Amino acid sequence: MTAAAQILLDRIKSDGSIDGQVIKVDKFLNHMVDPKLMRVLAKEIAGRFADKMIDKILTAETSGIMLAQAVAEELDVSFIYAKKKKPLTMTEYYAAASYSFTKQESTTLYVSREVLSAGDRLLFIDDFYAKGSTLKAIDEIVAQSQTVLVGSAVIINKGERQDVESILTLADLQ
Ligand code: G4P
Questions:
Q1: Using CB atoms within 10 A as the burial measure, which of 6, 85, 93, 125 is most buried?
Q2: Residue 60, domain CATH
């Protein structure tokens, strides 16, 4: 286990909880946020992509934003957060629908055409990978924009996909 994983695991045990498949992290990750912990996690993830020539980080509102910003700082690139409501000012955009099993609702992710250029090498960042619906929508936006998804990384991977990098998996939490 990496040092970052151990720090996160200790924090979940002290300030969070694990209830079957649901991990409660809202005192330090996705409601109240500990920026120092975020920095530790971001350094670990950024290190894994340091030589991958990432141009931009891509995440989705809301809870992916804090990690995306921290990783973007480490890799010295900008980050984009796909919006769940299309602003009136966004006239040219890529869009893809995503169904959240956790929240049992469908949302559409919007990214302005102005912030992606064909050929951009992107790193997708999020807090959780669960059923993969967010990543599926991101894949569609990547295809629409002719960008390149170089990799994906989340804090906790609750799914089966091995190619989604993470600090912890469900197995680490049992
Ligand atoms: P998927 O994108 O991988 O398919 O995941 P799914 O639809 O099942 O759930 C995604 C949403 O649920 C995400 O928030 C994610 O943060 C949250 N989530 C998933 N598993 C857990 C968990 O174990 N603990 C907590 N605390 N949250 C979890 P979102 O709907 O995308 O919205 P937002 O909260 O980022 O705004």
A1: 125
A2: 3.40.50.2020
